[in-house]
Amino acid sequence: MSTGVAVVGAAESDAIGVVPDRTALQLHAEAAANALAHAGLALTDVDALFTCGLDFMPSLMVAEYLGLRPRYSSSQSIGGSSFVAHLHEAVRAIQAGACEVALITHGETRRSNRKRGVQTRPQHFDPWLPDWQWERPYGVDAPPSAYALAARRHMHLYGTTTRHFAELAVSTRAWAVRNPRAYYRKPLTVEEILATPYFVYPFRPTDICLVTDAGGAVVLTSAVRARDLAAPVIEVLGSAVAHTHYGVSQMPDLTVSPAARSGPAAFAEAGLGPEDVDVAELYDSFTYTAMVQLEDLGFCGKGESGDFVSGGRTAPGGEFPLNTSGGGLSYTHPGMFGMFLLIEAVRQLRGEAGDRQVESPEVALVNGMGGYLSSSATAILGVAR
What we know:
By secondary structure, this protein is an alpha/beta fold.
């Protein structure tokens, strides 16, 4: 089954990692130009823009910078899953005839902002925000502590261990070794990780995503128009979005993410199941983030993700290719990572992943997560037949 919409271009900005000589807008623009070139299209073809993360009106800012006057525009933000959610929205807009060519862009300079003294999140006390009242006073004031809370609950209920987390980190790094654009490319071992001090228990530094600068973009159009372009047609087979809470203290179940809702809905639209997926790109802000998604998307049972990722199963040569770019743990993570999951999935399906190419994949699943395991956006992509 297909939605009748295709991803025809996907690319990063010219530079990623530590890029102190670029602004976030420049990274948006570089990525947009590269993705459009990848699609064989021009800015003049674009009539819809989706983006978030720059300011209170990011689509206005990016459109002005690119010289676009789109007839469809969206800046909705639900954290790191936003760009996969944008794909879901773009599919609906193209299906409805509201636009023809949708451009989704992302750009952040979170790494360089640290040295520039730029605050990327409010540091002052705001009594109106629920988390400032009910979570931060108890030490849950940043993603590591919130995700650690969820991970510890999973460990308590299911016997998941820090060795399981290390197994996944090692496999993800093995993919990054094959990616010339990955920030970390030095191979890891499980024993090396286990000898490292904790950052926030149960997480060691290798369990936690990078903080980088990066831009990315994808381009979508109708499958009919896509066939007239000089590019492989990667169809969107299904997509869905879900969110369950804002503050982690309000999470219905610390061991169940909203991927348990978005995943089945996307599979149902695609007419496929977990067994049909050849390569998976899952949000890995933390090792636990990827592991809970494996369970909630149906790749293994609840509480079984620790054993599932052990023994190099998700590493190059393993039976379940996962986060083949090196993921947010080793490749790049500029604050919101969902865009880069889409880019890698498209590269794998187009056979453009170089040394990390999975053999003849036909179906890829992308799942973005946002907030404190708060939002999920799932997309299932396939090579057009």
